Amino acid sequence: MDKTFTKTELAQYDGQDGRKKYVAIDGVVYDLTGFKAWASNNHHGNHPGQDLSEQIMKSPHKKNVLSKLTIVGKLA
């Protein structure tokens, strides 16, 4: 986890115009690019480029899905 993202920097990774899709969960930034559930840039009303720490706890899978994702950094 060498890269540290601010919320403003994280917001740039929104999957639009070919950009990668990143989200933060509990201070860790994950890459969602290529993850099927996020193919449309909208997963149950959530969007890449955001801190979804609270939202993931409301999902049916909770944090179990995080082990399938690549860690790209941390959120400042």
Automatic annotation (TrEMBL):
Cytochrome b5 heme-binding domain: residues covered: 5-76
Protein name: Cytochrome b5 heme-binding domain-containing protein
